[in-house]
Amino acid sequence: MPSGDTVRRLRILALQTPAAQGSGAGEGTRVLRTQHFRKGATMMTSTHKKPNAAQRRPLSARWLARIALLAAVASVPQAAHAALAEAWGANGDGELGNGTTTNSSVPTAVTGLSSGVTAIAAGSGQSLAVQNGGVYAWGYNDYGQLGNGTTTNSSVPIAVTGLSSGATAIAGGYSHSLAIQNGGAYAWGDNNYGQLGNGTTTNSPTPVAVTGLSSGVTAVAGGNSHSLAVQTGGVYAWGYNSTGQLGNGTTNNSSTPVVVTGLSSGVTAIAAGYAYSLAVQNGGAYAWGFNQFGNLGNGTTNTSTTPVAVTGLSSGVTAISAGYGHGIAVQNGGVYAWGENDYGQLGDGTTNNSLTPERIDATDLHNIIAVAAGYESSYALSSDGSLWVWGDNGDGELGLGSSTGDYLTPQHLLPPSGYVFTSISTEIESDDALATLAAVPEPRSAGLVAVAGGLLLLGRRRRA
Predict the structure, then answer these.
(1) Which three-class secondary structure state does DSSP give residue 207?
(2) Which of 12, 52, 101, 322 is most enclosed, with most CB atoms within 10 A?
C-alpha cells in the first residue's frame, strides 16, 4: 500500500481523449498520464460544491471492474527476452565455450555471451551464437567450421568473419555451419559433398554465399553432410544425397540448392538429421531420406527420396527436430517422438524403436513450445521456461548434475532462480546442449495502480 505522501504526489489520470476516438487506437482507448506535484505548490480550487454523504453514490460494478482490470494488467510481468547463453555436456573440443575442455553435467556460462544473445546452435563439435546481430563460434575447427579463417580450435567464442551484423539465424552441421544475414544464406567449413551450396566442393574457413539464396531466407538447418533452407515458404536442399535426404527424387549429390519435391510453399520449420530431413508444411509434418530406424515416422523402414507424411501429425505441428536417428515434434503443445530408441531418446519408458510417432508424457509435457533432438538424447522447452530432458546422459548432456545412466522418461531441468530458459539446441552427433536464458522481470505493482485508480474514480464522482 502506498503512503499518503505517495498518493499526494502521484495521480494517474485515465482520460477518454477525443483524439483516441475514431483513431487507430480505437474508441474507448484510455491514455495514462502521470502528474508529479511539489509540496507547497499552489493548487487550483474547484467551484463545484462537495457532495454530502447522502449524495455520494456507491461505485457501480462497471467502475469496480475497471479498477480490477487496471490492477490485473499491472501485475503481469514483462516478457522475458533471451540474453545469455549456457552450455553443458561433452567438452573435449571446447564446445561449451567456457575456456576449458572439461565436461560439465550442469549448465555453465559461455564466456562473453552474458547479454544480447538471440540465437544459439550446436554442431557436432562446434557451437554458434548470435549476439547483437553478430555471429560467434567456438569448439572444433578442423574444417574451418568456426568461420574465422583458421582451422584452430577455440574454447571461447570468436567472431565469424563477415557476419558482424544483420544475422538472424544460425545452424550447425557435422563439420559445417550456416547463417542467415539480411535474408541471405551463408555457409562455411567442410564442403566435401557440396554442403556449402556455392557450386564447389572446396572447403571454406570463412562464410560463402549460398547460390540462389541471397534473399527471403527465413530458416537454415545442417545435417551430417547436407543442408536445408526455407526461402519464401519453400524448402531447398543441397550437399550429400546418398539416401535421398535432399528430397528431389534422386540420390545425386548437389553443390547448389535444389527444390524439395512437394514443399514449394507453406513451410514454417525444417530440421536436418544424420541422412534424413524433416519439415512442417501448413501444420503437417513431412520426412524424407534415410529410414533404417523408422526415423521418417511413416510406419516403415523404407528410404524415401521425396517427402512422406509423418503418421498422425497432419495438423497442429508447430516445431520439429531431427536427431541422429529419431525425430521429435510438437503438436498442439504435446510432444511426439519416433525412430531410434536404444538409449531411451524417445522418452516412452522403453528402449524399443518406434516406426510412428507416440505421445510422450502427456501429464507433464503439455505446454511445450520447442524441442531439440540430439545424438541419443532429447529436450523439450516448456512455456513456463523450464526444460524436460531424457535419453543418454553419458557425458552429462542432460544437465542434471550427473553423467551416469540413461533416462527413459522425461526429467525436469529447472533454470537458475530468477531466470527462464528461452531456447534449446543440440546436434545429431554431439553429446552437449546449448540454451539461452533470460532474467524474469519483476511484475509491476498492482496495488499502487489499483489505489490510484480508485482515487481517480472517487475524484470523478466528487466532481459529478
Answers:
(1) strand
(2) 322
DSSP letter at 451 equals: H
State whether 143 and 49 are in the same domain: no
Tell me whether residue 55 is exposed, middle or buried, using C-beta atoms within 10 angstroms of its C-beta: 0 to 12, 13 to 18, 19 or more: exposed
The letter for the amino acid at 159 is A
Instruction: Give the whole-angstrom CA distance, residue 394 versus residue 396.
Output: 6
Identify whether residues 127 and 193 lie together within a single domain: yes
Q: Which residue has the cell 511426439?
A: 336
Domain count, the chain: 2
How many CB atoms lie under 10 A from the CB of residue 180? 26
Strands 134-139 and 126-131 turn out to be antiparallel
Residues 333 and 383: their CA atoms lie apart, in Å, by 9
The CATH number of whichever domain residue 235 belongs to comes to 2.130.10.30
Can you spell out the DSSP letters for 416-428?
Answer: PTTEEEEEEE--T
Quick one: 292 and 397 in the same domain?
Answer: yes
pLDDT in tens, the chain (464 residues): 444 443 333 333 333 333 333 333 333 333 333 333 333 333 333 344 444 544 445 555 555 555 554 454 444 444 556 689 999 999 999 999 999 999 999 999 999 999 999 999 999 999 999 999 999 999 999 999 999 999 999 999 999 999 999 999 999 999 999 999 999 999 999 999 999 999 999 999 999 999 999 999 999 999 999 999 999 999 999 999 999 999 999 999 999 999 999 999 999 999 999 999 999 999 999 999 999 999 999 999 999 999 999 999 999 999 999 999 999 999 999 999 999 999 999 999 999 999 999 999 999 999 999 999 999 999 999 999 999 999 999 999 999 999 988 999 999 999 999 999 999 999 999 899 999 999 998 665 544 454 555 555 555 555 55
